Amino acid sequence: TPGRRWRVEWSKTPQPVQIKLKTIRGIRDKVPKGRYVVMISLYDRLGGHVLRWSRRLGQQWGGATLPVYHDGHYSNTEIHLEQSVFTVLPPQWKVQPGMILVFELFLLRGSISPIDRVVAWGAFPICDSNFAIVQGHYKLPMLRGHMDYRITKHETIEKLIASDIDHWISNLYIQVVRLPRYLSGQKEYEVELQFTSGLLSHPDRIENSEEAVDGEKIPIMEDGEDNNSSTGVGWLLYFGTSGKSGPSVDLTSSTSGVKSGMSSSINEGSGSNVLRKRKMSRTSVERHSPKVDKKPPPPKLTRMEELERHTFSVQPPFSSKGKLQRYYRYVSRMFISEMGFSLWRTKDFWITILLLVLLWFARLYIHYCGQWLFLQALRLPVNTFIFFPYTVNLNYQADLLTTAEEVGEVVLGPISNIIVQVLLVLFSWVSQKALGSFPLIFSKLILAFSLWVVFDPIMILIVDAALGRYTNSASQPIGDAFKLYWHFLRVEGSGVIGIPMVIFLYAVVMFTAFVILYLYFLKLHNNGRILDVFHRLCGKEEAFFVPYDLELSNQELSFIVKKAEQWRGEDGERRKVTVYDYIWSEEIDPMKGEKVEEVTTHIAIHTLHLDGLREIYRHFLRLPATDGAIVEVFGELGTTNLTPDVKTALLKRANSLENI
């Protein structure tokens, strides 16, 4: 009945997702043996705050896998997880481009560690360049140690790994699946309560075969299928970081409370910080859908082919079109986010409002002080110079000024604010170069002041018009926008030419202030995080540096070699290190004797037995100088035993040399 029904706006409903944690490759002996779990947390930005559940005090957004054992041996290169975490992410209209998922690898307490401790962590964005929740196969590098909140940019992680590969510990392979908001026979836009009907034994709508709103028959559900439903999982997520209660969404799937779909504001008491798979009522597809010819399933991929599908880039395929529009959407959304306008109940919003109120007076008084200084430089007497909260009375004898001086008096007010704006931007740039960072509160101050500077001529015009300063009166000053009109009326008998001149001057001044604001926002605000996030969301795969799964540093290789040379077995065995250079060369111009060479180095460690038996222990490949990576190879040396990323790199280099 209509009394038991309401509609749900799915655009404002969190998106349920399934995060499949597949494997951690390249872990080897970088961590001790023990039991490990991977914990997932949602952060508002890199180096920011973890998002929390709105109505469950003390519980943060997060989920974790079951413990998995790793023996800590060099030959065990992977931790096979093969587990899923079910949870919800913000709806698309509330997604901020800087939001990330943080994956932390925990070593559980045991003989190695008396407490649970983080041994590795990695960050991954939750949206792509179109601000849609990511979906697909991805991989991300994991840094050694616990999460460093001083890292606020993705570029910092990349530079940290590129400078020293020992900061990197492994690559995590994941798959993100956006779950549907409805199943077969369920309405995405409609939710109906069934609890009272079940208690009073009244027949419900499904049993009466009542038609849906669009005329489609709702399939009948068997009584036995109700028993397999979930007992109720409440989903309450607050997309903010302050301690106050904010906008929240309560999503519940329960047989006793709700039979289908998801809704807003249902059961406040139910909830879980780790969302697991929901068992929802389902209808038999075979009974309600005609038989169709099934297509043959695609061939099953091998494990190596499956790993090749994972990418670090989140840019969706065929997304090169509409780049300018996407760039505009990104900048506008990030500007609203940085100003704190997206969530009015958060602390950032009220800090921004306070800054805007305080900087209103700073912008106003700087404007008129600049004009007063200009009049003092001209040695022109000033009749009144009185400050008010909303304006300043600056009265002088306008008939003593020439046309150029009157134009200078009009533009000197906005230009004074632009000069202060430039000085603040330079101060931010110098601080970032000298100290490496700039406080966030001062970045917000510069951003708010720059916003006022852009609209300073408009604000002055609105206040002057409200005070009636568009007339030539001896009792009150003339407004800035009307000075040139009265000047040309007094000098040439017609003030019409002053109107387009003022419009042109204001347009130039506002455009200049906007360009400074735009450049500051992209390159300097919040230590350059805006441009960093844009590059992370829109960059292609080849634009990023991700280590190979079995890559190791030169220092680690030297340690392995020295340790192997010092090793002695129980029966007198020892280990020998051999180095082979495989040189590939090709002449480009035989007349000039120019040629191209590439050297691939093979470092092999053999175990030598007393009876002369020579057994391979470990061996490594140093890729050509253009790449320079050192990777470990298992088994016999050949392309069949190379990992897919190393094999792809070698094939790319071979193809590029053939095209020279």
From TrEMBL:
Membrane-spanning residues: 349-366, 373-390, 410-430, 442-463, 497-521
Region ranges (Disordered): 244-300
Annotated Basic and acidic residues bias: 284-300
Low complexity composition-biased segments: 252-265
Keywords: Membrane, Transmembrane, Transmembrane helix
Protein name per Swiss-Prot or TrEMBL: Uncharacterized protein
Native organism: Ciona intestinalis
Organism ancestry: Eukaryota, Metazoa, Chordata, Tunicata, Ascidiacea
